[in-house]
């Protein structure tokens, strides 16, 4: 099947068909271009999406630690790689499909134009031959008619008797001339006809089939090129499928790597303070002598004085239990209980303490109106939702466990920097030795400033490491020293005048977060003079101040870091310990601020 033999007379149709083929090729190229733009925009949007949700690595504290976060960021990385593969698809299509199509379309237009020009030239040559043949034919026809007229004129004169011989002779010459010209035109017409027939045969059987064959081959190559582009279009996508599959497998592996137990452990490691929860609050029984007082009903005046002496001793033992902050901060002055005590005698001469009616009402009033000492949940947040104070260099604003971790991290970083500086010093020394052995390579003195700077950096880093190790040893020593007693400091942190407690509790409102010693009630001042001369409580141990304490609140005792005090009353679970200086000044100090050592034979006195 050939266009030259089958479509010898369809030159215009083939012209239109080949033009349609090129238009279709360009249309498909436009489709590929739009697909490339879609892929590029898709990849760009994916990268912007990844960039939007990727963490900004401004500091190490913001780095993802939880497995769920790490898995999400791994998915983002895989998605970023997936976007890269979409860009590869776009580049492959642009280079292998679109670019090739545009180049081939340009070549195809040039080739088609050349073949059509050849066909038109052949057609024009055939038309010229036909015109020559037609002109010779018309000329031959005209000469034949002129010869026929000349013959008729000669015959008419020859038969006319009146015609002269000269006229007859002239008509005969004219006839011979026309006959000769007719014969020449006949020969020319025959030659032109033969030439035209030959050119026509050559045109329709040689030239046109050849041109149409070239057009056919061109159109078939166009079809083949489209097929190759279709295949390349699909191959561009298929080549990245293995990598895209790996990206999807990476996402699945990231999803499988999520470990809820590990995340929970990270929460514990991140926010563990190192303190122990507070113990139970003791029951303060204010009604233990009510029924005894009511049943007795009489007071022995004769033994009141001796009963008063016994009451002093009893008060000295029980005042810490009945009223925690009942003593004013006066030297050698024991705190008063919130009740007025007096004694009563029994028939057998024994004495016991009783309460008056007014103190009973006072105790009941305290029970009804007093605020329960419930630990504030905000104080347990350790700086989560409250405003953080300025971070200290030794991390003393953090709980012990967090402080230890931060110090350990800093020590590790400093050790890495120290190792780097040491390597640099060794390299500079080696270079200096080379320069000394080979002066032409460089001046050894030029390395001296850099060596001095490196040595200064090494000394500075060693000092920093030593300082941080001292802080770390202090934290670990405190944690070990306080491991044998109950910590109640993470509930009752004392923060006065915007000061940070060593355990890292923060507050904006001192009335909400700070629970210092309560002020003495005004109507108890009448008992101050009564017990002014009481004997001081015996010391049951000693303590060393770990942190300084201002002691601005009434009933508290100021202390300096490292100061040694006597313990006269243990912490009852409220976060306060009663202590005494050597000069006799007494008061309450935060239990979390001191390192307590109790005497074995006096503990629990």
UniProtKB/TrEMBL annotation:
It is found in: Cell membrane; Cytoplasm, Cell cortex; Cytoplasm, Cytoskeleton; Cytoplasmic vesicle. Residues 476-490 have a biased composition (Basic and acidic residues). One of its GO terms (biological process) is signal transduction. Transmembrane segments: none annotated. One of its GO terms (molecular function) is lipid binding. It is a peripheral membrane protein. It comes from the Eukaryota. Residues 476-539 are annotated as: Disordered. PROSITE patterns: F_BAR, REM_1, SH3. SMART domains: FCH (SM00055), SH3 (SM00326). InterPro entries: AH/BAR_dom_sf, F_BAR_dom, FCH_dom, FNBP1L_F-BAR, FNBP1L_SH3, HR1_CIP4_FNBP1L, HR1_rho-bd, HR1_TOCA. Keywords: Autophagy, Cell membrane, Coiled coil, Cytoplasm, Cytoplasmic vesicle, Cytoskeleton, Endocytosis, Lipid-binding, Membrane, SH3 domain. CDD domains: F-BAR_FNBP1L, HR1_CIP4_FNBP1L, SH3_FNBP1L. Residues 1-263 form the F-BAR domain. The keyword Coiled coil applies. It holds the Pfam family HR1_TOCA. Belongs to the FNBP1 family. This is Formin-binding protein 1-like. It comes from Aotus nancymaae (Ma's night monkey). The gene is FNBP1L.
